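Hi W.,

Here's what went into the run:
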Amino acid sequence: MAGSSPPPGPVPIAELMRGLASVAESRAAFTEVKSLSALTVPLTSSGTLYYRRPSYFEKDTMTPAQERLVVDGSRLTLIEGSDSPRVIELGSEPALRAVIDAIRGTLSGDATLLSRSYRLDVAGGLGSWQLTLTPIEAPVAALVRQVVVQGNGTAVRAVRTIQANGDESRMTLAP
Amino acid sequence: LIPSRSARVHPTVQTRARPIVLIFAVAVLTTTLVLSCVTVRTDMTDFLPPGHTEATRLMLRELRTGAAASLIILAVEGAPVDELARISRAMTERLAHDDAFSVVNNGDALMASDARDVLFRYRYLLSDPTPFSVAALHQDLERLLAGLRSSASPLVARFGLADPTGAFLTVARQWSGSADVRSVDGVWFAPDRDRALIVARTRAGTVDLEGQERIDLAIRQAFTAAEPGGARLVASGPAVFARDAAVAMRGDVTLLSILSSVLLAGLLLWRFRSAWIVLVVGIPVMLGIAAAALIVQILFGFVHGVAIGFGVTTLGVTLDYPVLLVGHRKRGEAPPATVRRIGQAFALAVISAALGLTGMLFTGFPGLAQLGCFSAIGILVAAAVTRFALPRVIASAELAPVATVSIDNLERLEQVRHGRVWAAALCVAATVYLLVFGGPRWSRDLTALSPVPARTLALDAELRRELGAPDTGLIGLVRGDSPEAVLRQEESLLPTLDALRVQGAIAGAELAARFLPSTTTQRARQAALPDPATLSAALREAAEGMPYRAGAFQPFVDDVGASRTLAPLTPTSIKTGLIAARLAPLLFSWNDQWYGLIAPDDPRQPDRFADALRGAGAASVNIADELNMIVADHTALAWRWYALGLVAALLLIAAALRAPGRVAAVGVALAAAQLFTVTILTLLGTALSLIHIVSLQFVAGVGLDYALFFARRQLDQEERARTLWTLLTCNAMTVLTFGVLIFCRTPVLRQIGATVVIGAVAALIFAFLFAGPLPARAGKTA
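Here's what came out:
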């Protein structure tokens, strides 16, 4: 699909989402680079990401420290090292849920879910696209200024998250 | 004992009954009006004596308006966790805006308000001092860096840079109170089940039933507004108990009063063959209740619910008065003739019963004083109405009994009196039994009087345990001239309390000094805070080798610098509602003194807690013990006054009758009935409490009626038959009305029912045997 000649102009959102929604399961190695205003150097971490339709999402960080983040339905579990898990019910944290849904909604191709909290802008063609999510409501904007997702076809390649204070995280994915 | 069928109701009875209807209507109106005007209070502490020592007075204040009394625990269960958390938030949000509550907290409410800003600003004065040494800061910065690497980095960056030592987290945990409770995303949950917990404190002064019902309604509305779906709401706390008890009691009383009214009306109709008698019987008791409630309201400023409840019970005796009048009337007789025959016995019975009740006025027990006053006034007024208003009315309606015992039956029955020796022997046996087994059992427990079912109390205990909320039983007290003095004393107690916790004597303790240090301590902490230059230098050194940008911790340095000159937080300077509400139950002023409360959590070894506090110069009070002691003391006093009241009644009778034999007969009949009732109750394993004093007083009242009427002089057979038949009617009325109480849910009412039924039957039998004249032996009469 990536090889076929793309139609001129930006890819329609519906078409992009249909493609993403066809993915039942995916696994990728990730490298995350965080640029924080408090730090002089970027923080780099790496591990694997796992996604299963429609709402299971797992981020396993291997280096430099072990961490496991699982979002299953409306429950978020964060396990850092050997600490006891921290559980957050997303149902009672609408803003945090919206941030999580930016990733999950993109992976599952759920345009309805995404447009509930974000303005969607698509650039590029189906072969190489860029989806920019800008929060509509203030509570979400207080957590995240913008999320930019890049991909080829049905595969997500990079996620860039810009915090309200300018801190930035850039995650690149390799199959 | 077969009623004759010959008597017919007079044909013109309806026109002549108009006065009855009129007086009855007036009685109903008066009673309704008075009862709707008086102030009724239902708080148990209003019923109790004011307390003789400062500690007990303070404790009663605590019970009325203190930490335990104002606490309501709400639990939501029966739905998925995130749904429960949502309902918890919605309810908390709504209730927090209700004026009836001073604080509503479901875990993060305190931290989601402007209170958070205050606590954040004061974090370095309110938390244990950190050395701000290079080594300690180095560790903090490493922890912070790890946090920034984690997926939670946005949150870490938000608070961590201004507070790398984590002082605010410590402060927040201390102020939110229940550090040990399971928190799911900031919402409190029971540790071992999916049950969301909310703590609400009602504003002081909502002790009346009306206020409690309003609070209950607000809670229910908040629950419904949260669209709970299948979730259930469980509520617990004094306000909820009072309402539940009132509802249960109201249900009981409504059902039972309908049932007993029907039974009573049936009996009266059968006995007097006239519907008017039912109205006549109701008139004196209603006017008696109205007058009694009015006088008590004037004398005391309010009427206690318990005094009304028990008072109306005692006034049940006045139902007999019109029956005694009508029962002794010969058909066609003019009013003065009937009154002449029964006047003396009636007056004596009434005045001695009222005299017997006045003893309660001197027990020093506000509730009992009210009850004594209520009953005595009610009896006198009801009797006056019967004596002065009813005779004419009864005569004009031509009310009279339709049948009496036949003379043959009467004489055969009176022969039974020769068996009074056996009855006397029975009384001696009862006395010996009571003496040998150490007398009747006395109840020392206030809960014997409480209408709250045991099941409800168990639920309350469970919720308190799940929340780690302090028990209401045991408290420590610290007193001082100022909040500062109290807080300093409490601070000196902290090591002792920590030691007790480590040793397992208590699971923890709630006290103000735990989260609000004294001004002295806050100033000491301020003095130990480094100046900005020193802190910046230490931070630079601590951050050596770490990738922090220069100036990353400027918010931290600025805040520590500002903390050095903050005016310390004191109870009087706290303006934020939620913080003040959190503090109020634990640190308050009363009578120009400041008091600090220390509430132990799960005191497994209460004695060690009490000893340790006393050893450290603080007081400790076991509320339940103390309260039961007050009740026991005053109950003993009430028993003495009850006995004295009986003696006074007998002295009055002796003075009026001037016939030693008859006085002795009445006295023996009365004493035998009381003794017999107490013995039966003891045999049944009942512990005697205030309820039984009230019931026995009622029994004494009807017993006096019975004995004095049997003991009248020079009666012909016809009159004796009328008396026997009338007293049987009175007794049947008592047994019917109080018998139904045995079937109700409220334990207090069941006890009253059983005692009165046993006592009234005993009173009639003993009065018949002892008070009536002994007939000649059956063989000797012609």
